[in-house]
Amino acid sequence: MVDLIAAHISPQYRLAVYLQAGTGQRPSEALAFSTECRRSGFVRIRWQVSTMAHRADCRTVFVPLKNRTEGEYRDVPTALFVDQEVDAHLSTWKPVPVIFIGQRGKRRRLEAFFSPRSHGKSTMPTASTYGYHFKKACQPAGLVGPDGKATYTPGSLRHFFASTALAHGVPIHEVSRWLGHRSVNHDRHLRASAAERLGPLSYGPAERDAVDTRHRGGPG
Known about the structure:
Blueprint: H1 2-8, H2 14-23, H3 27-30, E1 38-39, E2 42-45, E3 47-49, E4 62-64, E5 74-77, H4 80-92, E6 96-101, E7 107-112, H5 127-138, H6 155-167, H7 172-179, H8 205-209
Antiparallel strand pairs: 1-2, 2-5, 3-4, 6-7
């Protein structure tokens, strides 16, 4: 499922698919991915794209994470394929500097991966934009129901990440922390063995697809 969607979605959004499936990010968080997010062996998630970012007059393009204050972040370990997808993205599109005003009124700058680059667009893509391309990709990928509607949504990729980790013995509180659930005490630090605990996410596409990707339970 993951690789099929990634293969058919507009190329500029391919990395967002793997950021969601490989690190459990929300669509708005994946679209806020920047050079400061990438660390050695993990990603640091600090911002999400504002729902108003599509407006040309939007000054606060990026906002704090859901239910978090500005400055808070979470770290999620990365499997090799995530790092490879980041490198592949960078081989085609270089990060674009985006200047915005934080909620504290401070002028900030991020070297963003998903800044607009084509079709003459000058505004940031939002979760709605990504959702449109995601559903569109499900059609040629054959991931549609009898009614012709897409079987999956971007949220399915977070469920894939969660269910895969849980199925391979990662404690639910640790998965919840990686997903950024408010009910879990905020912990910025990763365990030394965090990457190894992701199990099949460290493997290739064939092994990843062997997991029951239609599971929609677990953390949301």
